[in-house]
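Below is a filled-in request sheet from our internal design queue. Each sheet records the structural input a requester submitted and the sequence that came back. We keep these sheets so that new team members can see what a complete request looks like end to end.

REQUESTER: design group, bay 2
PRIORITY: normal
MODE: inverse folding
CHAIN LENGTH: 622
BACKBONE (tokenized):
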């Protein structure tokens, strides 16, 4: 793929696409006109400020077809007299595409192009590739392109359930109602260990060990004495070091998916989560995870669809052994599911057939240059920890932009773990080692990715304590209507780039917020989101937008219209930025609202979020 960048907001993008029809003749104009029209519309939806020029040249056995688009309103037009002879199965063609739009980086354009190609060509059984040979063999094997035939699936209507779904959904909704009917949990009985075992919503118990607390604290915020120095923490009135603020707030403990036996494929989007903190967690605590309520909203199209789109919202609380509420949590996700018609369902539905997702890994990996490392080191040198000096509420202004923090490049992915609320495994940031000339001289730089590593892998991938193990859904046999499951595929590592679980971005943002608010601040709430509808659409997976999902970037004037279009991947840098958009006094607390987001070194946003921070008041302190 050929890419070039220029100054300002214009990044020209071009690519070469190879095509091979596999089942039926391909009408050239019926391909390129919709491609340019859809691509232009996708650019606008993704935040392009101006559509400059989209043009393509399709090289066919019978000649060439040139088409271009200069505005969404007028649409694409093709040159008169150009070749329009259909491309027959077994034949091949080359499409040269050039895109000039303002406001979108080249990696975003790469994803938009692949998404549009997938939407148009996969249903037609056309083999295609960017900078490679289109392959019907790949289509037949399901490699590289979608293999779902919409005709194989049931037509779904909102609130109307197929025979397969009906009983399962009744049971699911009844369990949700049982939480509502339970009312508030008996906290004293919970703390005394006298809560009946069959109480609806009692999810899990977690013993907080010092080893696990220190493991996470050292990995994410090693310079914070509140998290790593018990003597310092006690000097500020705490009984011991503090755990990370979301310790014990485990998403998959609270979230109950739409009945797995009622679906054959699953597409997940629009994760939008929140944790509100009331009291610290210390080593030696016992935590109780309690689900409070759940709801399901069916967003399937009224006129029917092959997908059932449901937005699931789960609310819960975490209490300690004294009956104190540690936090309230909210977990929001949209699931889009399909059901095979009885006579079309394969004998075995493997995980890669079950798990439908945008191809996030089409975003090219970055190779870090000397100039990149100079930039990273400069950003590290500019980081600022407020520390023991109070940050007064009166000194914070709307429009403030706290000093950026940088973590990564992220070498190893996290694995989900239950019920810690924190991922396990994964690499730590080697900031101190790289900034120390003596240690830096001993590090090894990879010739391909340009990343510096310690000679011993254990130096940057800390050992997981407490015999904790990853939490995966693994069922290699399948059972009844259930597909074969192995969710390790989502978080795999190795030579291929792995996707990063959502909580990693959140915990990198915690260090950024801790730096800014100092040791006298309190992170009252942290919110975060990944995979918005706009990001899915850009990669060919259209889902209905969840109006209840918070749009964090919209609170930042210079980011309005932008979205989190990327998924975090191994090899990415995490540049955490934030913006103060509100401050107020509520119930006697002096609060500041921030939006935060994480960018790659190229400027792609891969996590967005918000935070409510409680600060001391100079005037109230006298």
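RETURNED SEQUENCE:
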């Amino acid at each position: 793929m050929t890419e070039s960048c220029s100054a300002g907001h214009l990044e020209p993008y071009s690519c070469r696409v190879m095509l091979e029809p596999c089942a039926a003749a391909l009408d050239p104009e019926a391909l390129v006109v919709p491609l340019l029209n859809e691509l232009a519309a996708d650019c606008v939806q993704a935040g392009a400020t101006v559509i400059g020029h989209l043009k393509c040249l399709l090289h066919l056995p019978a000649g060439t077809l040139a088409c271009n688009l200069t505005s969404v309103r007028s649409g694409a037009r093709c040159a008169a007299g150009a070749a329009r002879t259909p491309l027959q199965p077994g034949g091949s063609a080359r499409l040269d595409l050039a895109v000039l739009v303002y406001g979108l980086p080249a990696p975003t354009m790469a994803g938009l192009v692949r998404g549009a190609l997938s939407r148009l060509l996969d249903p037609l059984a056309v083999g295609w590739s960017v900078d490679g040979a289109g392959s019907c063999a790949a289509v037949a094997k399901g490699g590289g392109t979608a293999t779902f035939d919409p005709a194989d699936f049931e037509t779904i209507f909102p609130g109307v359930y197929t025979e397969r779904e009906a009983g399962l959904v009744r049971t699911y909704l009844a369990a949700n109602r049982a939480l509502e009917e339970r009312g508030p949990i008996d906290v004293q009985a919970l703390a005394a260990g006298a809560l009946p075992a069959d109480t609806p919503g009692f999810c899990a118990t977690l013993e907080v060990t010092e080893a696990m607390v220190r493991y996470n604290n050292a990995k994410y915020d090693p310079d914070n004495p509140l998290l790593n120095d018990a003597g310092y923490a006690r000097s500020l009135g705490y009984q011991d070091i503090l755990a990370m603020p979301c310790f014990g707030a485990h998403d998959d403990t609270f979230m109950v998916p739409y009945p797995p036996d009622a679906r054959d494929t699953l597409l997940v989007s629009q994760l939008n989560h929140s944790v509100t903190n009331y009291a610290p967690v210390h080593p030696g605590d016992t935590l109780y995870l309690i689900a409070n309520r759940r709801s399901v909203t069916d967003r399937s199209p009224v006129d029917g669809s092959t997908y059932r789109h449901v937005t699931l919202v789960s609310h819960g609380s975490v209490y300690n052994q004294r009956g104190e509420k540690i936090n309230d949590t909210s977990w929001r996700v949209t699931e889009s599911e399909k059901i095979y018609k009885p006579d079309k369902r394969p004998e075995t539905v493997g995980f890669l057939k079950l798990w439908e997702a945008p191809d996030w890994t089409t975003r090219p990996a970055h190779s870090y240059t000397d100039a990149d490392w100079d930039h990273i080191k400069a950003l590290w040198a500019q980081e600022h920890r407020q520390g023991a000096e109070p940050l007064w509420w009166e000194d914070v202004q709307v429009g403030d932009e706290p000093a950026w923090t940088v973590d990564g490049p992220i070498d190893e992915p996290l694995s989900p773990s239950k019920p810690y609320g924190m991922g396990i495994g994964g690499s730590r940031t080697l900031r101190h080692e790289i900034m120390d000339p003596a240690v830096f001289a001993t590090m090894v730089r990879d010739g391909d990715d340009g990343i510096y590593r310690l000679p011993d892998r254990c130096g940057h991938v800390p050992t997981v304590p407490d015999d904790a193990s990853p939490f995966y859904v693994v069922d290699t046999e399948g059972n009844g209507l259930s597909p074969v499951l192995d969710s390790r595929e989502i978080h795999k590592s190795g030579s291929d780039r792995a996707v990063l679980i959502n909580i990693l971005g959140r915990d990198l943002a915690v260090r950024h917020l801790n730096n800014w608010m100092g040791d006298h601040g309190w992170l009252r709430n942290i919110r975060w989101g990944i995979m918005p509808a706009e990001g899915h659409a850009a990669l060919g997976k259209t889902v209905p937008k969840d109006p209840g999902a918070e749009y964090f970037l919209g609170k930042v004037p210079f980011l309005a219209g932008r979205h989190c279009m990327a998924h975090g991947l191994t090899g990415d840098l995490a540049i955490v930025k934030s913006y103060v958009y509100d401050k107020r006094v509520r119930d006697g607390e002096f609060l500041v609202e921030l939006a935060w987001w994480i960018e790659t070194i190229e400027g792609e946003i891969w996590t967005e979020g918000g935070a409510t921070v409680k600060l001391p008041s100079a005037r109230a302190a006298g």
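SHEET NOTES:
- The domain at 2-147 is CATH 3.30.70 (Alpha-Beta Plaits).
- Residues 163-182 form the longest helix (20 residues).
FILED BY: M.R.
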